[in-house]
Design a protein that fits this description.
Helix content: 40-55%
Largest sheet: 8 strands, antiparallel
Strand content: 15-25%
Number of helices: 8
Oligomer: single chain
Length: 500
């Protein structure tokens, strides 16, 4: 077999190049300290390594998300702490304002401090985070959530969204609470009824907040507004009280209707069939409806037209009367709106401080009352805390030191205190939720760190290089390269011409 010099040269070159390639690869593994760099290094391990790296990267992102969520919730908790302090001071002032020894000057000083506290509360409600984004605006982070309108009341311009952060597999944590939950959607009164006295009352009577004492008996009766009407069987007689309910039927208009007074001595009062007032009777209440009349609206009560006609062009609250009934209508009723009047308590002798119970509901009247005085138990709606403080300020500025003025201030401040208590309860609940979110973030962070640590250990076992063995193999490979190179040099020197 004849082997040419060219073949020897080619084979030695390939051997040197192969040894250099192996040495270069080993040098790359040493420099990166990784056993597996490409799939060719370990086809079985590479898939597991890639999955572990993805899991670790995802865990690191969860931790970053948790840090952002924790910062957001911490800022909210700080703001809510300020809100709590402000509301506590507001409540203290309202309690002290009920002192009968205070004069108008004292009450005005309290009103001015309440005004300042209201401004401070609005400022906290418009707090921003480090990115100049509003904390309590829901998703509308670049929109100031609470702004004063042309009527000097506060409107909410945010939304009900909550920015969620994913802090773990399937674990989402809220980063904020919309301002509507904290500041605007606050139940009025005691959450069931709002108690108030007619501003036109001539007596000094004060009504207490109503409470439900029999939930079974009250079922079906909590959707009515009630009026406790004071009347005299004959002029100068001891006062009686009776209880009427005003229940909405089909209502599409925006009018708020209140039964203000009942005059049992009115000549037309007896004209209404007493059975019509009995909710258990076939007629089931005295009907109230609305009829168009040449641009005005006539109010029909039990088939009798009240006077004067209601004027839709007049934006002020209007009073209409018929057969001893007097109603205040605030807003514009729709012609399809219907209401019913039911009588739940017949005229009963009034005694100061006595308990008044009906339909599983209980309230109390105290003070002196006069004929045609009335007190209302209205269904609780929602009201923003800024309006509540403004109402308290207006209540403190009711002039007069007589018993009537004092009773109006007492009832107004009582309802405001209930509203403040409801707001503080709402804030407390939100702070509890914020604390729970922060705890969830901390727990999830610890879980993610533990998982990442375990994954890193597994990844290290699969991927990391045994440096001692690798260095030894590198030195061995380098020796092989040197031997190959020396052999190549010697093979190049093989020639018959050198022997001549």
């Amino acid at each position: 077999m004849r082997i040419s010099t060219q073949v020897f040269y080619q084979r030695n070159t390939e051997s040197v190049m192969s040894q250099q390639t192996k040495l270069s690869q080993q040098n790359l593994h040493l420099s990166t300290q990784k056993r597996v760099i490409t799939g060719a290094d370990d086809p079985v391990a590479i898939a597991t390594i890639q999955r572990l790296k993805q899991d670790i990267s995802l865990g690191e992102q969860y931790i970053k998300n948790g840090e952002m969520a924790e910062t957001s919730n911490s800022l909210e908790d700080t703001a809510l702490s300020q809100v709590t302090n402000i509301l506590q001071r507001v409540r203290e002032l309202m309690v002290s304002a009920g002192n009968d020894t205070y004069n108008q000057e004292n009450r005005e000083a309290i009103a001015q401090e309440l005004d300042n506290l209201r401004d401070e509360l609005i400022g906290v409600a418009n707090s921003k985070d480090g990115n100049s984004q509003y904390i309590f605006s829901g998703f509308q982070v670049d929109t100031q959530p609470f702004q004063e309108n042309e009527f000097a009341s506060i409107d909410y311009h945010g939304d009900s969204g909550s920015r969620d952060y994913k802090v773990g597999t399937g674990v989402f944590v809220g980063g904020n609470t919309p301002g509507s939950t904290i500041f605007t959607d606050i139940p009025e009164g005691n959450g069931t009824f709002v108690s108030s006295g007619n501003p036109l009352n001539g007596g000094s009577g004060v009504i207490d907040a109503a409470s439900v004492i029999d939930s079974k008996a009250s079922k079906g009766f909590l959707q009515e507004d009630y009026t406790i009407a004071i009347s005299e069987a004959t002029p100068g007689a001891d006062p009686d009280y009776s209880v009427y309910g005003l229940k909405a039927g089909t209502v599409t208009g925006d009018a708020k209707i209140t039964l203000q007074s009942v005059d049992v001595n009115n000549a037309g009062f007896a004209g209404f069939d007493p059975a019509k007032f009995d909710p258990a009777a076939a007629s089931n209440g005295l009907d109230i409806s609305f009829i168009a009349n040449a641009g005005l609206i006539d109010v029909s009560i039990g088939g009798v037209i009240a006077s004067p006609s209601f004027d839709p062009a007049n934006t002020e609250a209007q009073t209409v009367s018929v057969n001893g009934f007097s109603f205040e209508i605030d807003g514009i009723p729709d012609l399809t709106d219907t209401y019913k009047i039911n009588k739940y308590v017949e005229p009963t002798p009034y005694q100061e401080g006595q308990s008044i119970e009906f339909n599983g509901i209980k309230t109390e009247l105290k003070g002196e009352v006069e004929n045609l005085d009335s007190f209302t138990l209205r269904q609780s709606d929602t009201k923003d805390i800024f309006a509540t403080i403004k109402d308290a300020i207006d209540t403190l500025r009711i002039p007069g030191e007589d018993s009537v003025a004092r009773s109006q201030r007492e009832m107004g401040l009582n309802m405001a205190r209930h509203q403040i208590d409801n707001t503080m309860s709402s804030v407390s609940n939100v702070r509890t939720a914020v604390g729970a979110r922060i705890r969830t973030i901390e727990n999830q962070r610890e879980s993610t760190l533990d998982f990442n640590l375990s994954s890193q250990k597994t990844l290290s076992n699969l991927e990391d290089l045994d440096m001692a063995a690798a260095i030894s193999e590198f030195q061995q490979q380098m020796s092989l390269l040197e031997i190959t190179q020396q052999t190549f040099v010697k093979m190049q020197g093989l020639s018959l011409f050198k022997l001549l």
